[in-house]
Amino acid sequence: MKNFKLNRDDCLFLFVDLQGKILKAIHNNENVLKNSVILAKVSEILNMPTILTAQYPKGLGSNEEVLRKHLKDSKEYGKLSFDCYGDKEIKEAIDSVGKKQIIVCGIESHICVYQTVRSLLGGGYQVFLPMDALGSRKEENHLNALKNLDQMGAVVTNTETILF
Q1: Gap between the Cα atoms of 42 and 23, Å rounded
Q2: How far apart are CA 21 and CA 127, in angstroms?
Q3: Rounded CA separation 117/21 (Å)
Q4: What is the DSSP letter of 75?
Q5: Model's pTM, two decimal places?
Q6: Where are the beta strands (DSSP E) in 20-154?
Q7: In angstroms, rounded to a whole number, what is the distance separating the alpha carbons of residues 58 and 54?
Q8: DSSP letters along 5-61, please?
Q9: Residues 48, 13: contact at Cβ < 8 Å?
Q10: Could you tell me which residues are beta bridge partners of residue 107?
């Protein structure tokens, strides 16, 4: 049975590829960004560790400034692979924090988020997915990814539940 209880002292936030050039094509993108910013503010206020990734930043740019301003102390890790945990530098950053619960926000649910969460689960992490802070270009791809990740063992939840 899944453990549905988040422990603030054992939790890390992972913000995946919330870059403007990609984000503008995402279904319900304003909501995805709004909820990701809410979670970034929480991590800032509670001084919780965060990791930020950017897919091919040379071509796709950095993460949205409205998000970054709440993650000033977070390094943005550029990557060329879809799986964040498959990137050696990002994997080392995640593992070095020493937390076992990871809240993953970002895009796209069925590609980068999907592959990352699958690897995190395989690495023994408990993963929480605020479905309203995740997105894909097509809603059906987003919903399919959430269904599959839930079946793999991730906890599919929402931003408000994480807040409380």
Answers
A1: 21
A2: 26
A3: 23
A4: P
A5: 0.96
A6: 50-55, 76-79, 101-107, 126-130, 134-135
A7: 9
A8: ---GGGEEEEEE--BHHHHTTSTTHHHHHHHHHHHHHHHHHTT--EEEEEESHHHH-
A9: yes
A10: 135
Residues 6 or more apart from 97 whose CB is under 8 A from it? 12, 49, 51
The full set of domains in the chain, from first to last, is 13-163 (3.40.50.850)
The pLDDT profile of the chain, 164 residues, written as one tens digit per residue, is 567 899 999 999 999 999 999 999 999 999 999 999 999 999 999 999 999 999 999 999 999 999 999 998 899 999 999 999 999 999 999 999 999 999 999 999 999 999 999 999 999 999 999 999 999 999 999 999 999 999 999 999 999 999 98
Q: Which amino acid is at 35?
A: N
Q: Please choose, from the candidates 37, 41, 43, the residue with its C-alpha nearest in 3D space to the C-alpha of residue 23.
A: 37
Residues whose CB is less than 8 angstroms from the CB of residue 151 and which lie 6 or more positions away in sequence, other chains included: none
